[in-house]
Amino acid sequence: MKRSPPTPAAPLGGVEGALSPAAAAALLEEAADLLVVYLDFPAALRTCERAARSLSAGGLAGEPADAFLEVKCSLCVVGIQALAEMDRWQEVLAWVLQYYQVPEKLPPKVLELCLLLYSKMQDPGAVLGAARAWLRDPDNRGLPECPALAELHLQRVLLPLGHLSEAEELVGSAAFSEQQRLDALQAIRTARHQQRRRPAGSEGDQQLSQEGTSHKLLSLLMLLRRLCASVVSRFASLPFKKSLLATLVLCLLLLRFDPASPSSLPSLCRLAQLFHRIRGALLSPLHQRPVFD
User: Fold this and answer.
1) How far apart are CA 66 and CA 83, in angstroms?
2) In sequence order, what are the residues at sequence separation of 6 or more whose Cβ sits closer than 8 angstroms to the Cβ of residue 55?
3) 39: how many CB neighbours lie within 10 A of its CB?
4) At residue 236, does pLDDT exceed 70?
5) Which residue has the higher pLDDT, 133 or 204?
6) What is the per-residue pLDDT across 37-92, written as a single tens digit (0 to 9) for each?
7) How far apart are CA 124 and CA 120, in angstroms?
8) How much of the chain is in helix, strand and coil states, percent to nearest 5?
9) In 3-state terms, what secondary structure has residue 77?
């Protein structure tokens, strides 16, 4: 038995180029289904682009803006994952800026994913300018996510690039807690001390690289824990089907299955079968998608 990918949904907003929150959420669910269940990353990206373009053009009159912003952010998260799975991670920042125009308008979750992705791929300089502009924007400094993003920017971008003076300036301007401030200053002092002592090409470079990797891993785990808590609280009020779908997306993000690796296919197939069994048990036959041999 082979399950066919879902047929792209027709525009549900009533007007071409304008979507209601329900229509945008339907496209988001379709894109997540294509990403997680069918592993059709190009189709997932196209669905995200279609919905994000409509939301960027403006929603229907009278609809709440917050609903559109949340769905648009979620569409970008799915699109980022699709690009990463297709090994097109270099395009991520330019892709999201199509829908937000300037870095200062990026949602905190989207900027966080960009920082994690580019630093993990050893290209922190690509996101330096965007993160710098976002953190210096007065409207963003009052957001509750700002201190965590400032710490992430310091640890994953400024210190690896050796921008120690800018890191000190960030510590003085960001709304860090006292413990965060002390830890950041200690990390800067350590980086400056190691920068002065190690000769070029010595074994100290390799040791510093290993220590930096371990420190980055610990920071990543802490951020992922906060991200998990945020996702759980966000989807706790949604219906069970959407909560399950959000869980599957989170599993794909954290476990980082490689669809090109044969060893990951059995796990993905079992995950997809479990999803469809539960969905088939919860939904009536009229709402089930057709199954083809």
Assistant:
1) 26
2) 19, 24, 68, 71, 72, 75, 99
3) 19
4) no
5) 133
6) 999 999 999 999 999 988 876 555 455 667 788 999 999 999 999 999 999 999 99
7) 8
8) 75, 0, 25
9) helix
Instruction: Find, among 245, 211, 201, the residue nearest to 36 by Cα.
Output: 245
Q: Is the CB of residue 114 less than 8 Å from the CB of residue 127?
A: yes
Q: Write out the two tokens for 144.
A: 């509750």
The span from the CA of 176 to the CA of 255, in Å, is: 31
Nearest to 152 by CA among 121, 118, 178: 118
- Asked if 49 contacts 10 with a C-beta cutoff of 8 angstroms, the reply is no
DSSP string of 97-166, one letter each residue? HHHHSSGGGS-HHHHHHHHHHHHHTT-GGGGHHHHHHHHH-HHHHTSTTHHHHHHHHIIIIIHHHT-HHH
**How is residue 230 written in tokens?**
């945020």
Summarize pLDDT for 255-285 with one digit per residue, the tens.
555 545 555 556 656 666 665 665 565 554 5
pLDDT score recorded for residue 160: 94
Alpha-carbon distances, residue 36 vs 190, 257, 271 (angstroms): 42, 10, 9
In the block, which residue shows the tokens 């000190």?
168
Residue type for position 74: S
The strand ranges marked E within the chain are none
